[in-house]
Write a structure and sequence with these properties.
Blueprint: E1 24-26, E2 37-48, E3 54-64, E4 69-71
Antiparallel strand pairs: 1-4, 2-3
Amino acid sequence: MKTKFLGNNKASINSPGSSKILDPIVRQNQSSAISGVDYWNAYEFSFLDSNRHPLLKVVEIVIPASSARTVES
C-alpha cells in the first residue's frame, strides 16, 4: 500500500490558500441515482488571520456526492 500523508507533504506554511495542501480523491462508480453530500467537520481548525493573529474556529465542509472528487480524510 502506498504511503499516504495527511495533506501534501510538500505544503508549507508560506503557501496560504494553496490548493496543494489537500490531495483530491477521484470518486469511483459515479451514479446519477446517488444523491446527498459529504460533511466534514473540523472542531479545532487553527489558522492565522490577515494580521497574523492565531485563530481557532469550527469549520464545516460540504462536498456534494455528485462531485467528481472528494478530499482525503
